[in-house]
Amino acid sequence: MRSVRIGVDTGGTFTDVVAVDEQTGEILTTKTPSTPANPADGFLAGIEKLGRLDVGSIVHGTTVATNRLLEDRIGGLGFITTEGFEYVLEIARQSVPDSYGNSYFWVKPPRIVPVHLVKTVGGRLDHLGNEVRPFSDEQAAEVARWFRAKGITAIGVCFLHSYANPEHERRMREILWREHPEAVISLSSDVLREYREYERSVTTLVDAAVKPAMRSYIATLSNRLGMPFSVMKSNGGVLSAREVVNQPISTVLSGPAAGALGAALIASTAGHQSVITLDGGGTSTDVAVVIDGEPSITTEGSVGRYPCKIPMIDIITVGAGGGSVAWISPEGTLKVGPRSAGADPGPLCYGKGGTEVTVTDAHVFLGRIPPHLLGGEIPLDVDAARTGIKALADKLGLTPERTATGILEISAFNQSNAIRQLTVKRGLDVRDFPLVTFGGSGPLLACRLIDILGLPSVVVPRDPGNVSAFGLLTVDVKNDYVRTYVTRDLSLGKAVEIFHDLEHQAGEALDREGFDDPVYQRSADLRYYGQAYEVRVPAPAGEIDDDWHAEVISRFHDAHEKLYGYAYRDDPRHGVEWVNLRVSGIGPITRPVVRRLEKAGEGATSVRPVHFEQTRDTPIHQRAALGPGATVQGPAVIEEYGSTIPIHPGFTAKIDEYGNVEISRD
User: What predicted TM-score, i.e. pTM, was given to this entire model?
Assistant: First the structure.
């Protein structure tokens, strides 16, 4: 029996499974409908579809934490903070969302914790962590008993300047354990030991909010699976399930992060070191940028309306998936998304009780996807899609073909706007980057995105619907640690002390994961004195001496100039200020090899009516039958088990040596 490593990515519509044979490197793939009511059912059904295998390890990408935040399913959450700072959530930040031209018309959204569930405790630290007023055990006990009486079990604790000294927070936790044993507690000094009270408070509360659901899900899955497994994290690493329940916030972009990493490996193998990745699913589309083989990392991310200041792959998510609903606004204009029909009831063509037209229905009506999914496992009701499109067209006063094309055009512009946010807004020229598109619905709009954005080409990997699950098998075990230390004169001794402490924490965590020889990556956040925000730069490994100090400063000047167009490298009037020191502890794994495609497989070419500019009989190619060097001229459609690629007139698709389909304008 073959020994395999398995990656399972649970999406909003489908659960994708990839297995890699540890001896031969052979890759097996499959998909199964997701089960939103209990994601564990879809997880186990996907593994069962692979058949009898000797499973060595399993890595899981989950949306449990993400969906809880996106759907605002947060209740029964309490907040404990320093006396006098009970309105930190209300004050928040002054920035107004882009869609509001004037702050007078913007009403701040409800806080993650309502004001009546915020309690304060006496005691005060200064910014260096020195105690100004002693911690009040009496008030702490009173607060703990109050939450117990109210039945509030998920509690976030964030005291002023606890990043410099966590003792008051740890004392609060001890008292909560004593007075309120059922409480699930998150401390800001554990979640994010970094300054800025508002972001640290919200990040801690997000961790507390998703912790009960994640613990329940992981426990259920562990019991049913009967073996240990790992979970994908937002920072591009994995962690064992037993460890991730203590830091569930680290999983909030679990699946999308895996997709970006899998696509980065596939693209770099094919010779594309810098690309844009687009993961199109049934519910949403996730976009990331890969530069020199590595996805960009940020700590300024958010999930829904909640800022999460943890290291995560820089991903923009928009509600533009195959299940995105087409609707008419009060002004009478056609809109698409962000609401999705999901997996249940799904699009009209699923025949499961859906009542609204979706992007998938538009593709079915135009003939761009076959009348079935997953190689025939899921038959589609073409008549239901046609009826829904015609009814919507009548309301708009358009032809059905025009309406369906309009739905796809709006969806393509929604995706292109997400790509612009990650490129143009960050000073990158989108025309310099090929697009790697994957996911079940990702390749469907490839040609339109080339036209809209001026992309040089679009690359569609083999088994595009399973790239995120494949990505789960390409990532190392990884933990991130940070310490705020604001100074214009960082002594070498202090730098050694902080980095040693962070590396010790990282080493202990990796030791629990079974890694004897971990790798440490250092970085630092710096800014010019007087600036409000900092720039992160990698810090060299090895001895921390004067040369090390000068190298980090030099890297900061270079990074600042690249980001903002100027630097004060030789101007002594603008001193450099150190803000945060960081360490990533990495346990390396052996990555699967992307193998070359030796020859074409089997599959006959057929014909069916497809609408592009007009409806006409169009060649339908089976992707398995296209070997290296094969060329497909549009109009045409390339089909495979988990996805479909429409090739519009005026475009050409070529198969490279790894089996990727590369699409470009003629």
Answer: 0.84
